[in-house]
Amino acid sequence: SSRTVSLLSQLEKINLDSVLGEADNARYVTSKILHLVQSQEKNRKEMTSKGSTGIEVILSTLEVKSFNLCDYGYVASYHFIIGLCGGRRASVLVTKGGTQILLQLLLTASKDSPPNEELMVLLHTLLAKIGPKDKKIGMKARINGALNISLNLVKQNLQNHKLVLPCLQVLRVYSTNSVNAVSLGKNGVVELMFKIIGPFTKKNTSLMKVALDTLAALLKSKTNARRAVDRGYVQVLLTIYVDWHRHDSRHRYMLIRKGVLQCIKSVTNIKLGRKAFIDANGMKILYNTSQECLAVRTLDPLVNTSSLIMRKCFPKNRLPLPTIKSAFHFQLPVIPASGPVAQLYSLPPDVDDVVDESDDNDDAETESEIETENDDDKDQHFKNDDIETDINKLRPRQELGRPIEELKMYEQFFPELSENFQECDLVSKEPKPFVPDANLSGPIVVPTAGEE
Can you tell me the distance from the alpha carbon of 49 to that of 42, in angstroms, rounded to the nearest whole number? Predict the structure, then answer.
């Protein structure tokens, strides 16, 4: 422990000097700290313990402008932070400003032509690890101008899976923000995701899983969902799902199949998506595949998600139902010759006669997606009005097993429950006069003084 503290003191001094000649010393000291942390768990705990300045020193090393970004001291610092990115330690890095520093380094490193691949892999790995712990990472990336860096790297290195995987993990984190999802969609990220997930192949399944999760997050935006429908991607998703259903006979890739269903679920949140799903024969496809999955209990998540999609997309009809869809026929007593009721009765059987107004405010919704980050904070403190908070209403009422009239017969056995007894006079010390009871028979003997 003393060795680690000594090395941290040396590194802090080097950071303050920040001269060109100190780069070699920073490389040596950082590598030594990395070795100590990797070899002994107690050193790692000491670095992240309360009151320790170890993380601040390491992060300040990354901020020194005179050091080379690709220097071994930097790389060792990255590996050190990766080793700390787990559970509570990742939250500590966020609170110390690690997200802002890494985004600034990513922006600086992207200016090199071509960017250093190892450096980009390390930076994106770090951002993917600490991103879920930072609720504001989407906003920070957009403000810093680092939002499209990961997207451009994926576009330029589609065959380099070592680099694409951490970039997709970062894009998945960015896409949870609605403003980022719209911005990335305008830059072609939806089309890019479909290049990665199709056609069917069992190679690089981990990359495909991350791409499907990213696509499902992106399609939650109605703007991106409409873009996917316009390009015919609903049919593509159904084809991909059928291919995985046929080839995954041992059910080893259930998560990938569920990821495809999540994408279909997101795109069918809009009316155009539901119509495209029906037109692509999606009801029959999901029904048949669900029937084949019922025998395997581990595939219940696929059946449940498929059921949710089918229930959402099934056409809705008003009562009375004069069509073959209903087992009963409710005939109105008087049907006017013209009007909305007559129009409903004249519709063919396969027409959805319930007006779907969910997408009538698409333009307003698109504008509202470009929202401020304050709205995201309000969502964190969302109060559900359906939850009862009155304790008196939540307390169960105790009902008597019998009417009160039937219970009066027991009053003679429990007089203390009904009669009003006066308290005894315990303060006065004078004895109360003896009053004989008139109902008592026999002589009354009054004791004289001195007798007990």
Answer: 10
